[in-house]
Design goal:
The complex is a heterodimer of chains A (about 110) and B (about 120). By secondary structure, chain A is mainly β. Helix content of chain A is about 0%, strand content about 55%. In chain A, a hairpin with a 2-residue loop joins β6 and β7. Chain B is mainly beta and about 120 residues long. Chain B is about 0% helix and about 45% strand. Chain B starts with a strand and ends with a strand. Classes of the chains: A mainly beta (about 110), B mainly beta (about 120). Chains A and B meet through β5 and β10 of A and β4, β5, β9 and β10 of B.
Chain lengths: ~110, ~120
């Protein structure tokens, strides 16, 4: 079965710097990979999706890369702000996307003022 | 903000009780899902549905059952709650986007504690 690894330790970044989060997966390459943000006690919120044939995707201060050779995705937040502090989840489709997603444990990001 | 609702938000109940966790969405999405998440752990898919009268089991084995009689409603039932069922339960829905992908919209979750 698919396994996803994300930085298990909390990531502390100074405000204004770029935060980079890593998602590594095993086994087959998914058709696409998604990133979500989750705040304490809340459900995840969709942020970005990148397809296997796309190298990079951007949305405002967010950037996602997808390297199917390395089986890795990187998630970047530029000009980070304290409000960006949250847990960020990487998720892969389990086959077609409609069948649900396989999630990583997430990386807890802390942006310090 | 996604239009997907879960009730109750918090539930503390004794062992052996029957419980139903409610999930409703107003977006007209065909696909709906239930995930289970323990603190600091990943979400695990326990049930999903392609549409009315469709229910499928997810990757994580669960003693719960689901039903899908209406498009907007996807309740989860535990016939006899046990302390091992203590967890957060998250409901989600999705529909195919313009490029055929399925971003998921999550409800706020129900935190269940079985004593």
């Amino acid at each position: 079965s698919q396994k996803i690894e994300q930085n298990s330790e909390a990531l502390n970044i100074q405000e204004g710097k770029t935060a980079t989060l890593t998602c590594n997966y095993t086994n087959y390459s998914p058709a696409y990979l998604q990133w979500y943000r989750q705040d304490p006690g809340r459900g995840p919120v969709f942020l970005l999706l990148i397809r296997e044939n796309e190298k990079e995707k951007r949305k405002e201060r967010l950037k996602v890369t997808f390297d199917t050779t390395l089986k890795q995705s990187l998630f970047h937040i530029t000009a980070s702000q304290p409000a960006d502090s949250a847990t960020y989840l990487c998720a892969l489709d389990t086959g077609g996307g409609a069948d649900g997603l396989t999630f990583g444990k997430g990386t807890h990001l802390i942006i310090q003022p | 903000e996604a239009d997907i609702y879960q009730t109750p938000r918090y539930l503390v109940i004794g062992t052996g009780k029957k419980i139903t966790l409610e999930c409703s969405q107003t977006m007209g999405h065909d696909k709906m899902y239930w995930y289970q998440q323990d603190p600091g752990m990943e979400l695990h898919l326990i049930h999903y549905s392609y549409g009315v009268n469709s229910t499928e089991k997810g990757d994580l084995s669960s003693e719960s059952t689901v039903s899908r009689i209406r498009t907007e409603h996807f309740p989860l039932t535990l016939e006899s709650a046990r302390p091992s069922h203590t967890s957060q339960y998250l409901c989600a829905s999705s529909a195919a986007g313009p490029s055929g992908t399925y971003e998921q919209y999550f409800g706020p979750g129900t935190r269940l504690t079985v004593t």
